[in-house]
# Entry
Amino acid sequence: MRHLITDIFAGHLFCAAGLATMTAALRHPVGSAMRMGAGIFPLILGGLLAFFGLIVFSRSAFRLCRRGSFSFAVLAKAFTRAFSLRTFFPAVLVGAGMLAFVGLLSAFGFVCAVLVLVIVSGFAHHEARWREILPLSLGMAFFGVGVFVWGLNLPLRVLPI
Amino acid sequence: MELLSNLSLGFDAVLTFQNLWYCFLGALLGTLIGVLPGLGPVATIAMLLPVTYGLPPLSALIMLAGIYYGAQYGGSTTAILVNLPGESSSVVTCLDGYAMARQGRAGAALGIAALGSFFAGTAATLLIAAAASPLAEFALRFGPAEYFSLMFLGLITAVALAHGDFFKAIAMVALGLTLGLVGIDVNSGVERFTFGLPELSDGVSFVALSMGLFGVAEILANLELREKREVFTQNIGSLLPSRQDLRAAFKPVLRGTLLGSALGILPGGGAVLSSFTSYTLEKRLAKDPSRFGKGAIEGLAGPESANNAGAQTSFIPLLVMGLPSNAVMALMVGAMMIHGVVPGPQVMTERPELFWGLIASMWLGNFFLVLLNLPLIGIWVRLLKVPYRLLYPVVLVFCCVGVYSVSNSVFDVGLALFFGFVGYLFLKLGCEPAPLLLGFVLGPMMEENLRRAMLLARGDASVFFTRPISCTLLVLCIALILLLAWPQARKARETAFQEG
# Structure
């Protein structure tokens, strides 16, 4: 039952990706059989993707219909359960931490970026505590500078100044 | 005799102080990261890739291969002690390995896993060395049409042998092929699917993609589960298996090695299929199948050796044809490219010391693993005690720095984050990410070979069926597709992956 509902979403996703690929591919020349253009291969791939997405979708829709449980309400319930704020909260914090790393690295240096990354993403775990995360972030900053900058000579800016 | 002279050439190249050190270091680091729960070989290799940048190509490849075996082996340690498979090929190790650990025989289980893997690794290395030359000669006869058909067969088998839903796996392959096309088209020079971003004109960074799908996504999924793990740290018992254990394990190891070596060569096969099939086989052959899942040593020894042999022989298509057969090999292609080695049949003739050196180092890597793991097991156990809330921020830092360092671009780190969320979505939707990665690597190669073949044949598509090798490969493809459509075969495939 559960996988039938997820397959409905998966099918839509593949279909959408396939159609998007086909539309984008149409901007490029298709070419001839001998000299294939830049558009033909993505066009075929997009078509295949949409086709298999349709199979995945219709197969599970058919089975759900036969059980009589194919309704918008069932889908909406599954969707809100899968993407509720409570289940999604850790992902948001990890994402925020990585985005901070991206934003801070070139302007403020490696140490700042790692401190923020570890602190923000560290709180994604439900048992996170300040007295563990703070030492961990400092430790990772020192370790990172030692290993990546001095040890491996990666061209990273260390400090803001 | 040619085999011996080739191998001695390889050992000459490897047996320098520097290369031995990197082989050792690779195996050590690979095990260290691989032991951490939730980190399979793909994420481990991607994370440790920057460590190899400053090295000469041979040392770097030796180290990467060491990392791979280490990660593989570390995964089975986690499976035995924590009941957490680091990757799909150690799922079966969990069944009987963890049961043995619960009975206080964790040491014997670890010992058997190490010795079985070493035996399988040695046998598979010899097989690679023996098969490489004739296969590479055969591969030199391949033109674009043959390459295209071979890759097509590879993708179809990868889908057929991947566990999970068949249609979703095909869709994932198609998605991967499409993602591989992002960037400048080599034939016409136009930019495709770049959304006007100059950072994408060289294509999607391979490391960012794999790190997102296998590293970040895994962390996001783990954070959602709020379960406690039970680690067996008390009474591991003697590491050396008893004589009785050895006798019981001997035949399964032998069968596992044979099975794994054969299945590992198949595209998409590799370690996962080998271990599952070996478990099923051992269960069928056992006098008392009910012992399986309750600590039967055959159920551990067979799959562990099969898995290692399969991991090893999956190097054959990569080294001989330049075609990766699974996600790890796809990563190895990326790593080889970074070091300026284009994988393919020409490597053996143009850079024999590199080719044979890598093969020789495989055996050495396995040897170091046995040396390392038996005495260091105490350290790995202590590492397993580190709670996940302290572990994943560290992994994230490694991921970010690893992705950044490939081309010093923060854009790639953002891309890894994006693919992390995409991968998380895939996990929720029950779509395996491994076929996508394979498609991503093969996408550009397939398109190029298709276009070249059509150009050479003056637009006549029948070339794929008139050239004998290409025709054989395509007939195999069609047979495989028909087999998959046949309901009974589909049922057999499903039960093979559900065993245990």
About this structure: The two ends of chain B are 44 Å apart (CA to CA). The first strand of chain B starts at residue 183 and ends at 184.
